[in-house]
């Protein structure tokens, strides 16, 4: 599955898909996480400055190891 957008909605969708057992997930987002995004995003302050797709792939791997095969 290709998920274009790892923002507030995309982040929640990605976590739900990974926790549902999806084993191949490709994330794409050209934006970095900013402090202003924290109110509505699944990522926390530790990911500020990260590319959203990279941060989200790390978070998914932490919560559901082996569920994401592509970043």
Tell me what you see in this structure.
The protein has 71 residues and is an alpha+beta fold. 34% of the residues lie in helices and 8% in strands. The chain has two helices and two strands; from the N terminus they run E-H-E-H. The chain has helices spanning 8-19, 52-63; strands at residues 2-4, 26-28. It has a two-stranded parallel ribbon. Helix 1 (8-19) links the parallel strand 1 and strand 2. The termini are close together.
Short key terms for the protein model shown above:
71 residues, alpha+beta, two-stranded parallel ribbon, 2 helices, 2 strands, 34% helix
Describe this structure in a few short sentences.
The protein is an alpha+beta fold and 71 residues long. It has helices at residues 8-19, 52-63, and strands at residues 2-4, 26-28.
């Amino acid at each position: 599955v290709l998920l274009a957008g790892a923002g507030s909605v995309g982040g929640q969708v990605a976590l739900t898909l990974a926790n549902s057992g999806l084993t191949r997930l490709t994330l794409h987002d050209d934006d970095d996480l900013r402090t202003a995004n924290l109110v509505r995003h699944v990522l926390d302050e530790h990911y500020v400055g990260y590319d959203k797709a990279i941060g989200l792939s790390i978070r998914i791997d932490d919560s559901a190891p082996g569920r994401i095969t592509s970043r």
